[in-house]
Inverse folding.
């Protein structure tokens, strides 16, 4: 999908969520669903398969999200499935996050860790990043076992790699 189309979807998603007054909630639900989709090849294939009728693919979304996500989130994901654009969800969510942050004067920090961070850890990390960037920060924790230990944080274009994997690699290179 072109950047302009991705941006257009993100702007439309933001407008719908803003009209309902639930931007943060929709953004979070879309982010979580995008991560589930990335991690589940069978689901991703089923939702993107043009040989499966769109109504059936949309029913899968309804079954998965119904009662667990807002009706806005369910409708937006269903619309992407129906239009054959579900493969673009991650990029749309990334743009939506940027748009939402810009509107709220905050930054999004994508934090990859081997295990889920506790609320206290996220709060301390947000405070540290805010002190460095000068912006209020929203933490998005992504569990990634490849990190081994520590965290890898991305805020905009800046990446702070404090992972055990990287430190071991640096030690190996030093020897």
């Amino acid at each position: 999908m072109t950047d302009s189309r991705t941006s257009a979807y993100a702007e439309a998603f933001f407008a719908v969520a803003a009209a309902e007054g639930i931007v943060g909630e929709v953004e979070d639900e879309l982010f979580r669903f995008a991560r589930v989709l990335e991690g589940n090849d069978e689901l991703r294939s089923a939702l993107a398969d043009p040989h499966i009728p769109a109504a059936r693919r949309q029913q899968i979304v309804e079954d998965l999200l119904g009662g667990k996500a807002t009706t806005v989130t369910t409708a937006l994901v269903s619309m992407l499935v129906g239009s054959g654009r579900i493969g673009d969800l991650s990029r749309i969510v990334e743009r939506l996050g940027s748009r939402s942050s810009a509107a709220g004067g905050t930054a999004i920090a994508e934090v990859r860790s081997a295990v889920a961070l506790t609320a206290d850890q996220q709060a301390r990390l947000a405070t540290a990043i805010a002190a460095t960037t000068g912006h209020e920060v929203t933490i998005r924790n992504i569990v990634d076992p490849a990190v081994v230990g520590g965290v890898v944080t991305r805020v905009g274009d800046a990446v702070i790699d404090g992972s055990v994997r990287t430190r071991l690699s640096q030690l190996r290179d030093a020897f």
Remarks:
- The first helix runs from residue 3 to 20.
- The helical segments are 3-20, 23-39, 41-48, 54-65, 71-82, 89-104, 119-133, 164-174.
- The longest strand covers residues 106-113.
